[in-house]
Amino acid sequence: MDKIVIIGAGIVGSAIAFELSQDPQFNITLIDKKAPASGSSGAALGLLMGVMSQKIKGRAWRLRENSLTRYKTLLPELKQLTGLEIPYNRHGIVKLLLAGDDLEKWRKLAEKRAEQGYRLKVWNRSQLQSFCPEVQGEEIIGAVSSPDDLQINPTPLVEALVEGAKIKGVKCIFGQKVDNFKISSSNEDNKRVCESLQVRGASLDADLVIVCGGLGSTPLTEELGKTVKIKPVLGQAMVMSYDGWQKLPDFNPVITGDDVHIVPLNDNRFWVGATLEFAHEDGQVMEDKQLLTNLHQRAIAFCPALKSASIISQWSGKRPRPEGRPAPIIEWLEGYDNVILATAHYRNGILLAPATAMEVKELIMERAKQT
């Protein structure tokens, strides 16, 4: 499987391209119909909520733990290789606990994480306000602090992964879509093989095709005759500016609660965002201005000082959620001998991208041992 074609240059496709580029035997091409990080990745807030996840075993925890471990080496590795800065919040994530939340559940999780070598602290309301003085919402009873979780700016991360992959020899084709696939008849295992792809009339040979197109993965699999249904979930966000934010000199974490995320940036700016709207029965999802207004009001309820903040800009993004199965999808496409799906990460594309890349590489290595 020397010639590998990766379709989709969001965070997942770019992470896979970079991971596989470490092996000189691979001839890799990364394709996207738009610029890198133009889809769900570029619209994400970049929260890596792995340690504070309630997942403690099985595939869900393995992916999270592998990603958190890889990020510790990946970020400095990309900086050294490319010279590009990747902004990220080093102060962790603080999850607000509201009336009705089960404090004992969080204490048990903190004990489990301590056994696994991670830090997770449960604060009462007084402790929370001593560390995060702007958090004043009446419904808040405490918080969970996770210093081992991160927030990374997604677009610079994708740009660094792509640049690193290029330096390692990956060929990139951006601004051009895959027109169709050339599929051979069944082999001895009664499976089909994607021999090549057509890109602007030119044929691109492939020993292996990896589909990482997010929502675009559904039409790609339709062309391959094996439709994988992925539905959009709308996330909306805004950039706010406020120069009166009170914080400790060396502690300014991401604050999240009730699926509302407040992300401090440089220059007294903040991202405020949330997952707001699932698709309708027809699979479409539309922006709702009232939901964005509700998001703004919810952030103010948690941090009343944000009422004085100005809104600089707003944006939205559609997150790919698999229909009828857990996210993400990382597997061989049914009926094909040389097509891998690595897609539909829903809210956790940034978090799970490094682990996904490692899982894909493992699938390739295992298949190579069988041939």
Principal-axis shape: elongated
Kindly provide the radius of gyration, computed on alpha-carbon positions and rounded to a whole number of angstroms.
21 Å
Largest sheet composition: 8 strands, mixed
Helix % is 25-40%
The strand count comes to 20
Q: What's the end-to-end separation, in Å?
A: 10 Å
The CATH C-level name of the largest domain is: Alpha Beta
Strand order of the largest sheet: 6-7-5-15-16-17-14-18
CATH topology of the largest domain: FAD/NAD(P)-binding domain
How big a fraction of the residues is strand?
Answer: 25-35%
Proper CATH architecture of the largest domain: 3-Layer(bba) Sandwich
Structural class given helices, strands, pairing?
alpha+beta
Global mean pLDDT = 94
The H-level CATH homologous superfamily of the largest domain, spelled out, is FAD/NAD(P)-binding domain
Characterise this structure.
The protein is α+β, with helices and mostly antiparallel strands and 371 residues long. It has 9 helices and 20 strands. It has helices spanning 11-20, 40-43, 58-82, 103-116, 125-131, 154-167, 217-223, 289-302, 349-370, and strands spanning 3-7, 27-32, 47-48, 88-89, 93-98, 121-124, 140-146, 150-152, 171-174, 178-184, 193-199, 202-205, 208-211, 230-241, 254-257, 260-264, 269-278, 310-322, 329-332, 339-343. It has an 8-stranded mixed beta sheet with strand order 6-7-5-15-16-17-14-18, sandwiched between helices. A 6-stranded mixed beta sheet has the order 9-2-1-13-20-19, with helices on both faces. It has a 3-stranded antiparallel beta sheet with strand order 3-8-4, covered by helices on one side. Strand 19 and strand 20 form a beta hairpin.
